[in-house]
């Protein structure tokens, strides 16, 4: 196999170097991940409005494909809450009923389109695109999305029918309107599920640690909570025939594995679903790469951003071919996989085999599974997405970041997911453009006895009446050069004895053509006013570009100094010598 093929399939090198000592860890991690994955897969499929078996299908072939192509050793691929919500949101405006064949076909098409978008991004090296989604925007989005998910599960928790269409506020109003029509026994099942799931988290971990278990083992034990709750409540519903008394159950789940098919391909639906597929891909990649890098850093491992796009692309294409919804890296499952000691992606393959076995042989056990328990599983799983601390921290640290969080949050809740995400991105970009167009500038002086130069407004520094040092803390380009020019003119006019003005370029990484022309005009205008413009600390890449122009000729008699200290020595000596010559001429 060629080097290029090996880079395309990182698993090949791991297989060749695989140590049998890692097998027990991978087996345990695969088992633990499958235990968590099965109830989550069922719940997330229901969240997306799909038959529950679709969640199982999404947990079989896609993880195996990622295991072959992904660069993270512990990332667990499968259905996730945010992708499920985005699928439901994308298909809520269609005339198809949730769970219908046409609805399922659209969900598979979304997975295929997402996969193709991932591959296109990889081909064009657009992994940097996700950098335009700042953390405040992502936090505001996930928090609002979690609230939408929770609101959407309330009807299932209490057994009422509520229209799913409309914004988040519409759903809140509709849910509140029907809340008093709740079905008592369904509500009891739902509340019992919530209580048990919450008790099996931190309280269980604390109790087990007090009994002597390590934090790792206690945490893994608590992760089995969703499966335990589902088993207990399924048995309860079956034994007491609660389904006959109005408690909604999953019902018959087809046994077997999906047969690969392209029947979902409907060309007329592509244009309508493409925008939603793009958002699913973007959010899926941001979430996946964040989890993958977080876990990789703990083991000093490396994750290849672009190869992750390739792996996610083919995983989603595999999902569509195997009859399942879009997939991404899940935080809770990946954390369990990591904590259980997974050494390689063999753990994901083992987990997939176990889920496949469940799809083949154990689906009859899901018949009496109450939908309220699935709803509770979803609610508890998304509680970690509620990130109020990020909102508070962002607002206190930077009003612009806080505004981006708020705009994203309100946009998602009050309008829709697309508008909220776009609003947050635009606020973030607008803030960046505003700051870039008004760079911080400081008059600096020398710290006595050193070669360090600091802001005159912050430190006690040495200055000179004939010389001004002006530091610009941003690259110079068309959007900010006029502001810089205005500031230069203002500070120059305030110092009547000024003869030399040095712009310190230590923070200037680029100078575009517009800025270059403006600097030449600035040098001319200052020269006519009796002031010579100089530059100092120009970075190598910037200097390389300037050498291809006649800028140094336009700057003359101004100079470009290697350091600010060098500029001060040269220009203060020049001023001193000129002053001495003038005094000599006058005395003569």
Describe the structure.
It is found in: Membrane. It is a multi-pass membrane protein. This is STAS domain-containing protein. GO terms for molecular function: secondary active sulfate transmembrane transporter activity. The chain has two domains: 367 residues, no CATH class; 143 residues, STAS domain (Transcription Regulator spoIIAA, 2-Layer Sandwich). Helix 7 crosses helix 14 and helix 10 packs across helix 18. With 588 residues, the protein is mostly helical. It is 63% helix and 5% strand. It is elongated. 44% of the residues are buried.
Features:
single chain; 588 residues; mainly alpha; Transcription Regulator spoIIAA; 2 domains; six-stranded mixed β-sheet; two-stranded antiparallel ribbon; 63% helix; elongated; disordered C terminus
Secondary structure layout:
Elements: H1 3-8, H2 11-16, H3 23-47, H4 52-57, H5 61-69, E1 77-78, H6 81-91, H7 101-123, H8 135-158, H9 168-178, H10 184-199, H11 202-210, H12 215-223, H13 225-239, H14 267-298, H15 305-321, E2 328-329, H16 331-339, H17 346-362, H18 371-382, H19 388-397, H20 399-414, H21 417-437, E3 441-446, E4 453-455, E5 467-472, H22 481-493, E6 500-504, H23 513-528, E7 532-536, H24 540-546, H25 551-555, E8 560-561, H26 564-587
Parallel strand pairs: 5-6, 6-7, 7-8
Antiparallel strand pairs: 1-2, 3-4, 3-5
């Amino acid at each position: 196999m060629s080097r290029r093929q090996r880079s395309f399939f990182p698993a090949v090198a791991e297989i060749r170097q695989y140590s049998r000592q890692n097998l027990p860890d991978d087996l345990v991690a695969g088992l633990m991940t499958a235990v968590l994955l099965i109830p989550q897969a069922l719940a997330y499929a229901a969240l997306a409005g799909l038959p529950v078996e679709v969640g199982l299908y999404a947990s079989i072939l896609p993880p195996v494909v990622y295991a072959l192509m992904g660069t993270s050793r512990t990332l667990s691929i499968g259905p996730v809450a945010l992708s499920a919500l985005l699928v439901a949101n994308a298909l809520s405006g269609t005339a198809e009923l949730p769970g219908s064949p046409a609805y399922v076909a659209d969900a598979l098409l979304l997975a295929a389109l997402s996969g193709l978008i991932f591959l296109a991004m990889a081909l064009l090296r657009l992994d940097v695109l996700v950098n335009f989604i700042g953390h405040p925007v992502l936090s505001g989005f996930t928090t609002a999305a979690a609230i939408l998910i929770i609101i959407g599960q309330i009807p299932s928790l209490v057994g009422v029918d509520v229209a799913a269409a409309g914004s988040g506020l519409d759903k809140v109003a509709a849910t509140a309107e029907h809340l008093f029509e709740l079905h008592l026994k369904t509500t009891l099942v739902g509340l019992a599920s919530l209580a048990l799931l919450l008790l099996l988290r931190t309280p269980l971990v604390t109790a087990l640690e007090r009994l002597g278990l390590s934090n790792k083992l206690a945490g893994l034990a608590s992760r089995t909570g969703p499966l335990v709750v589902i088993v207990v409540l399924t048995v309860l519903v079956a034994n007491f025939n609660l389904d006959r008394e109005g408690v909604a159950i999953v019902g018959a789940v087809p046994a077997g594995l999906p047969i690969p098919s392209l029947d979902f391909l409907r060309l007329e639906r592509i244009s309508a679903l493409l925008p939603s597929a793009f958002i699913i891909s973007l959010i899926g990649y941001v979430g996946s790469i964040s989890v993958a890098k977080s876990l990789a850093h703990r083991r000093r491992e490396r994750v290849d951003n672009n190869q992750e796009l390739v792996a996610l692309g083919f995983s989603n294409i595999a999902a569509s071919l195997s009859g399942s919804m879009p997939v991404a890296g899940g935080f809770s499952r990946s954390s369990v996989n990591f904590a259980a000691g997974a050494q390689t992606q063999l753990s994901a393959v083992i987990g997939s085999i176990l889920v496949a076995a469940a799809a083949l042989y154990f689906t009859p056990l899901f018949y009496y599974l109450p939908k309220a328990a699935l709803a509770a599983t979803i609610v508890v799983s998304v509680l970690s997405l509620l990130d109020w601390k990020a909102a508070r921290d962002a607002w206190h640290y930077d009003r612009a970041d806080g505004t981006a969080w708020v705009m994203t949050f309100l946009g998602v809740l009050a309008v829709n997911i697309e508008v909220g995400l776009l609003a947050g991105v635009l606020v973030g970009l607008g803030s960046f453009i505003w700051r870039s167009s008004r760079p911080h500038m400081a008059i600096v002086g020398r710290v006595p006895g050193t070669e360090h130069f600091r802001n005159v407004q912050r430190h006690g520094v040495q200055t000179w009446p004939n010389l001004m040092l002006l530091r610009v803390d941003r690259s110079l380009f068309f959007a900010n050069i006029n502001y810089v020019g205005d500031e230069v003119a203002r500070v120059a006019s305030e110092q009547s004895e000024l003869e030399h003005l040095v712009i310190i370029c230590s923070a200037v990484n680029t100078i575009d053509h517009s800025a270059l022309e403006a600097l030449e005009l600035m040098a001319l205008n200052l020269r006519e006013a009796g002031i010579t413009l100089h530059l100092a600390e120009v970075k190598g890449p910037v200097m390389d570009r300037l050498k291809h122009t006649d800028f140094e000729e336009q700057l003359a008699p101004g100079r470009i100094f290697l350091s600010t200290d060098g500029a001060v020595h040269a220009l203060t000596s020049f001023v001193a010598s000129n002053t001495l010559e003038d005094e000599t001429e006058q005395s003569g």
